[in-house]
Write a structure and sequence with these properties.
- This protein has six helices and two strands.
- By secondary structure, the chain is mainly alpha-helical.
- The chain has two domains: 53 residues, no CATH class; 53 residues, no CATH class.
- It has a two-stranded antiparallel sheet with strand order 1-2.
- Strand 1 and strand 2 form a beta hairpin.
- The longest helix is centred in the middle third of the chain and has 22 residues.
- 2% of the residues are buried.
Length: 128
């Protein structure tokens, strides 16, 4: 790709000379983790310059996850609980319940303590 003010032919010849190429910030998954390379010339603002959500997804994508008997018993139980919570949440919605009434409907049928805050339900509804 030619730099501003250069034509293609001069750009190609300049890469064949001993001119260094421009380094860019890169994120690479490796077998042991995720490698982030930040060129020395770059003034990095990590909140603005990096998409941490995308980097996190890249970091977590490590092939097939465990299934069946290899999956921990606690995780299988949590998956069942999440399915039940999602089913009850949808059921409460069909009955026209909203807000606190919907939360109470799900909480009672899940057998949770009345003093529990809604954080447990939010985590179950977002559980994959």
């Amino acid at each position: 790709m030619p730099f501003s003010g250069e034509d293609k032919a001069s750009s190609v010849t300049s890469t064949m000379e001993d001119r260094p190429l421009l380094l860019k910030l890169s994120v690479n998954p490796t077998p042991h983790g995720t490698m982030i390379v930040i060129p020395r010339y770059l003034s990095l603002d990590p909140h603005r310059d990096l998409d941490w959500k995308l980097i996190g997804r890249l970091h977590r994508c490590r092939g097939a996850g465990k299934q069946g008997p290899k999956l921990s018993a606690g995780r299988m139980q949590k998956m069942e609980e999440a399915r039940k919570a999602k089913r009850l949440w949808a059921e409460a919605r069909r009955k026209g319940k909203k807000g606190e009434a919907r939360y109470e409907y799900v909480r009672k049928r899940m057998g949770r303590d009345e003093r529990a805050n809604s954080g447990w339900l939010k985590r179950l509804l977002n559980f994959d």
